[in-house]
Amino acid sequence: MLLTTIASPSTQRQQPTRLRSYNQHRRRLITSCKTSPSLPPYSSWPKRVRVAVATGIYISVAGLVLLVKPGLLTNYLLSDSFLFSHLSTSPLLLGLTRVGATLACLFGFYYLGAASDDLEGRTPTRFYQSTVYGRFFLTAVVVWLVVTGQVGRTLFPILAAINLVSAISLHIALGK
């Protein structure tokens, strides 16, 4: 039975059990938000957290920029190739760029979430380690794409270098 009664002189009815537990949860959540401690100063954050925050910010910002202006990337990628320069405004290519940009935003949000957990004492070591290896893989693939001429040589090497430096920084910060 969803409704329960209280044994009191007036025999009032209580709220349904689900509603009562929802309200209790909501009050606890609101109270915890009001009393949550402020973040420690940035200088006291572990290096792995600072690297994760920086990575999350640059990946999210890059994703947001490309989501709004996908032509920025397609013009750079195809600027080296006279044969394919007309594709830089293709709706399909712009749409695919936006899909990649959305994924970049998500990855950035994951980094920021992991850094938040780390600041609260729940170190997401496996997440950090997997991103290091994933970015080493990404760098290798980008180098292969550039060397084999499958992508332009303008923007990708810069992105690969930023990714590699960030991956090495996090690898060092993890002490591995």
Describe the structure.
α2 (47-68) packs antiparallel against α4. The protein is mainly α and 176 residues long. The model is unreliable at 1-8 (pLDDT under 50). The radius of gyration is 24 Å and the shape is globular. It has helices spanning 17-35, 47-68, 71-78, 91-119, 125-147, 156-173. The relative contact order is 0.12. The chain has one domain (46-173).
Structural class: mainly alpha
- Tell me about the largest β-sheet: none
Radius of gyration: 24 Å
List segments where confidence is low: pLDDT < 50 over at least 5 consecutive residues: 1-8
Sum up the overall morphology in one term: globular
Amino- and carboxy-terminal Cα gap:
56 Å
In N-to-C order, the SSE pattern is: HHHHHH
Estimate what percentage of residues fall within beta strands. Answer: under 5%
Indicate how many domains the architecture comprises. 1
Could you estimate the helical fraction of the residues in percent?
A: 55-70%
Enumerate how many helices there are, as a single number: 6
Overall average residue pLDDT? 77
Total strands:
0
Defining key terms:
176 residues, mainly alpha
Topology of this protein?
Blueprint: H1 17-35, H2 47-68, H3 71-78, H4 91-119, H5 125-147, H6 156-173
Quick recap:
The chain is built from 6 helices and no strands. With 176 residues, the chain is mainly alpha-helical.
